[in-house]
Every structure is written in structure tokens, then in C-alpha cells.
Amino acid sequence: MFCVVRSSMKFIAAASIGIVALMASVGAQAGTGAYMQTGKLTSQPIGHYEFCKREAAECNIVSRDTRALSLNNSNWQHIQTINLSVNERIKPMTDMEIYGVEEYWAYPTTVGDCEDYVLLKQRELAKAGVPMTDLLITVVRKPDGEGHAVLTVRTDRGDFVLDNLTDEVLRWDETDYTYLKRQAANNTGRWVTIESQDNLLVGAVK
């Protein structure tokens, strides 16, 4: 997957926005469109497959409890702060520039591409207490057709996206991406398809 790097444009994260303001913005009860609808098992990205061979423990986490994270002021602040912190600490650079290969997923220390940002955010949020079942690597397509990776955080207020291209934490349906597939919530080594919003709308009127 070709991964675009961070724009030079600086976005301001709304880190001061509390959970009360968030709830007001998404409504008292999040609608069905706030959550991605996943489908059948699908292929694992080659970069993740190779990553799992090196980091087997990261890809063997299985859980029967796949309830979404109950969003509160504390974990919302963690989500926003970690997204901003990783975006600021890691300099965007392609795998070819770093490793001399097209695709190599790894935890970054100073430089990395989009999947590396995602891996680091996932690890840091897990250390902050967010279950891995709610931290899902997600493959998307940008409007220009380029491939990209983001981290989906599953919550009871909807599915939110952490992206190295913006410091804003947005709900998935507020972005302009086409969502293709993501890690399965019950198994970090498996991937599932994501149903397109267009298909869901068509199905709803049949």
C-alpha cells in the first residue's frame, strides 16, 4: 500500500474539548452511521503480515468481549493527547527512505510512515488503558485514490479516527476517506471488510 506522508499544514487539535462538548456534537445517542459496519474476513495487509511474524504477541490477542469503549472525559483526553503527541514527535518518511523497501511496518522512534504512526498510537493508547479490541488498524483510500492507514478507536459514541495527516480526532463518517478494511475487534491478527456507506444506504431502502 502506498502511504502518503503528513502535510506541512498544521492542524490544531481540540484537546481542550471535554466529553460534554463531544456528546453535544454527536448527539445524546449516536446513530448507526456513527459506527463502521464490518463484513467478512479478508486478506491481511502484507506489511501487517510481516510485522506479525516479528511481533507475534501483538497479533495473537483474542477477546470474546468486544464491547466498545465507554467514552469519558479521561480517555477522550488520552485519545486526543496521544494523537497529537505522536503526530508531533514522528517525522514523516517513506519505508523506501527508511528501510529501502516498499512496505515495512514498525514502531517508529523518530521517523515513519502512516502505518508506523498507527502502530505507535495503538501501543500508547493500550498502555493508557484502552482495550486493544477498540484500537483497530484501518486501511482507507483517499479521494485521490492513494492508499492510507489510520487508527480506528471504537467507542459508545461512534468510531473515531486518529490520522497522521491531521491533529483533529474525527468520527469516521466526518472524513472524506473510503474505508476498505480493518483489524477484527476480536482478534488482532485477523482483518475484516468495511461496508461502504453507499451500500448501507441502498440496503436500508430495499
TrEMBL record:
Residues 1-30 form the signal peptide. Keywords: Signal. This is Transglutaminase-like cysteine peptidase. It comes from Ochrobactrum quorumnocens.
